[in-house]
Amino acid sequence: MKETDFITQNKKKWARFEKLASNKNNDPDEVSELFTEITEDLSYARTFYPRRSVRVYLNQLSQGVFTSLYRQRKQPLGNLFKFWAETIPLEVYRARRNMLTAFIFFVLAALVGIISQHFDPEFVKIVMPDYYVTMTEENIRNGDPMGVYGDSPQVSMFFQITINNIRVAFFAFVGGILFTLGTYWVLLQNGIMLGTFQWWFKAKGLLFTTFLTIWIHGAFEISAIVIAGAAGLTVGNGIIFPGSYTRVQSLVFAAKRGLVIMLSLIPFFIMAGTLESFVTRHYLTMPSAVKLLIIFVSFAIIIAYYVILPFVVAKKFPEKIEVREIPRFIPKREMIWHKIRKPSEIFTDTFTLFIEAVSPLSRIFFNLIFPLMVVMIAVIFSLEWGRFNFNMTWYASFGVLFGTGNYFAWYKLLGWCIPFAMLIAASYYVIHNRTKEEGLIAGYFKFLSKYIIWLYLYALVIYTIFLFSPGFILFLGLFIGPFFNSIPSIIIMDNVNFFKALGKCFDLGKGGYGDLLLSFISSICIVTLFFFLLHNPFELGLMMILDDFLKQTLNTVTNDYSSIIQLVHAVIYMLYFFFAISIIMISFALSHYASIERKTAKGLYERLENFGRRNRSFETEIDFE
User: How many helices (H) and strands (E) does the chain have?
Assistant: First the structure.
């Protein structure tokens, strides 16, 4: 059949589809029928007209049919109901063993608290703050043992309690990343505290009174901690038992499953905060029957949703119980260096390069740079041990370690710039200058010996500006950042000294200044965000879990536990700097290449050499002659 006859015979059908494609309220049956016919036409065209425009047209048309046929309809209410009635119960069912493990471990921890308090009446002062014990004893003497619940305004107490409950559950969940140890610690700590608290009141003859008071809100609050613990164990077991996946893939899948369970706790956090703030404070005037009813209904809701419903849903949908996760395939692509990148492209390519380079970077860091940092930490601790031997704020500890503020010392400034310069060199060496012919460490030493002096001077200048510049100067420094960030790249790629690189950086940074500034600010925001995950004013920093664990573990062993905690902080900061400096330097390198491309169009000229050559992957005018 001639192409013209083929088009004439089918053009009405194709026009009909184009009309349906523009109408959202189309007939699915008709669209399905057209899908079958058009794919047959496409198959015919691929066979007899492979290089004609009709094949391209039908290919686009069939894709449109597929999209129209399988487009996901927006059903917000239906999807929301399905999430709570099916998705969460199935996820809880899959985590049922973790749920049982968390519950048993929490009960055993509570028994430890009960037994410890029974044999040591002063044990309560170890697990509870002294001021809380003193205040409660005063309330008991005044005939209001649970008076703590009526001391704060109701609304402010609601937000405070709810945030605290979320914080504890968050620690239990995130603690799973530490191979489940963090989760077990949160469950152990809260279980011992609960058992000790209840048995302390039992010794005072107030067990039944406090039980009816605490569990008004505790049914939801304690249950949420246990369920969050199960979510944390799900994450941790994903790391420990990856199966056929890599540990990273298994962690991602487990974190997604655990996060679904955590999201289910949001209403219970709110209900626990509401009951504790608005109801528990009336325990003295509230009838015991009402208290028992609230406690019974609360536990009934928890058991119905997290114990009974998962088995019901699993029985109803047995085919959905087993979920086979498919790792996302990310094809490896060749990095085009000489290219004008938008800030979003620099952001994406930075993390792509970092992921590809993290293995060799880690080898260099832990074999060469980290030991040097450990030596620096040892020197600081040996000279200033007394400063660490008390409960310092994190920023005071940071200042003593790195010489900021009143804790400045020349040896810190000069000393820290050595490993920082080595890390800058490692970042550039791994992503661009490394060759497979030479060994990683040997090649790095050769590379480092060539540029270390000027990179050290660069690190010294930047560190000095950071230490001595007032806040408004640092803010203004953001605007000259796009110029300064190209200095390491110029030193290495142009093989010049620091002073020549300083002169060239302003000339390169003129073109595309806005994009370079946005990329620079984005890099700073990323590393600041990750530092925010370590420390933040909301007491949700990851280091809070570790600090609490170390304090509770070490305060009965040594009086210098604060110094040990600060030492652990120092090690974590080293790992943070490994991540932060690597990310920033990779971003700086990509920004520098973008500046060079704007200035010289080197990459464009290279691509122009191939321009006009016929590409068999696409039709050209030659194909339609």
Answer: 28, 0
Helix axes 28-48, 3-21, angle to 10 degrees: 150
Pairwise CA distance, residues 493 & 595, whole Å: 13
Pull the structure tokens for residue 156. Answer: 């402010």
Distance of CA 5 to the CA centre of its chain: 59
- Is 68 in contact with 21 (CB distance < 8 Å)? yes
Q: Confirm if 236 and 180 have CB atoms less than 8 A apart.
A: yes
Pull the structure tokens for residue 32: 């399905």
Instruction: Sort residue 393 into left (φ over 0), alpha (ψ -120 to 50) or beta.
Output: beta
Structure tokens at 72: 């996901």
- Give, in order, the Cα–Cα distances in Å from 274 to each of 156, 160, 216, 281: 11, 11, 10, 11
Residues 6+ apart with CB under 8 A from 234: 95, 98, 176, 254, 257, 258, 261
Strands (E), 286-340: none
| Predicted confidence (pLDDT) per residue in 131-144, tens digit | 788 888 888 888 88
Q: Does the pLDDT of residue 531 top 80, yes or no? A: yes
For the record, the structure tokens of 277 come out as: 């703030």
Q: Does the reported pTM lie above 0.85?
A: no
Q: Give the closest residue to 59 by CA, choosing from 460, 618, 624.
A: 618
Of 548, 542, 535, 531, the closest CA to residue 391 belongs to: 548
Q: How far, CA to CA in Å, does 178 sit from each of 228, 261, 496?
A: 15, 19, 45
Q: Report how far Cα 522 is from the mean position of its chain's Cα atoms.
A: 17
Q: With CA atoms as reference, report the closest residue to 489 among 536, 531, 455, 520.
A: 455
User: Among all chains, which residue has been given the structure tokens 């083929």?
Assistant: 6
- Distance (Å, rounded) from C-alpha 264 to C-alpha 560? 42
Q: What is the DSSP letter of 495?
A: T
How many CA atoms, within 13 angstroms, populate the side-chain half-sphere of residue 565? 27
* CA–centroid distance for 463 within its chain: 28
- 3-class secondary structure for 291-305? HHHHHHHHHHHHHHH
State residue 557's pLDDT score. 66
- Per-residue CA distances from 232 to 193, 252, 304, 325 (Å): 20, 13, 22, 19
Query: 64 near 21, Cβ under 8 Å?
Result: yes
Structure tokens at 527: 């590393």
Q: How far apart are CA 88 and CA 620, in angstroms?
A: 53
Question: Using CA atoms, how far apart are residues 92 and 564, in angstroms rounded to an integer?
Answer: 39
Residue matched to tokens 């940074």: 509
Phi, psi of 119 (to 5 degrees): -95, -15
Cα–Cα–Cα angle for 463, 469, 470, rounded to 5 degrees:
145
pLDDT digits (tens, 9 = 90+) for 35-91: 677 777 777 777 777 767 777 777 776 665 555 444 444 445 567 788 899 999 999
Q: How far apart are CA 494 and CA 604, in angstroms?
A: 20
Burial class (CB in 10 A: 0-12, 13-18, 19+), 42: buried
Identify the DSSP state of 537.
Answer: T
The b-or-e profile of 436-450 (16+ CB within 10 A means b, else e) is eeeebeebbbebbee
Asked if residue 567 lies in contact with residue 381, where contact means CB atoms within 8 angstroms, the answer is yes
211 Cβ neighbours under 8 A, 6+ residues apart: 198
User: What is the dihedral angle through the alpha carbons of 494, 499, 502, 508, rounded to the nearest 10 degrees?
Assistant: -40
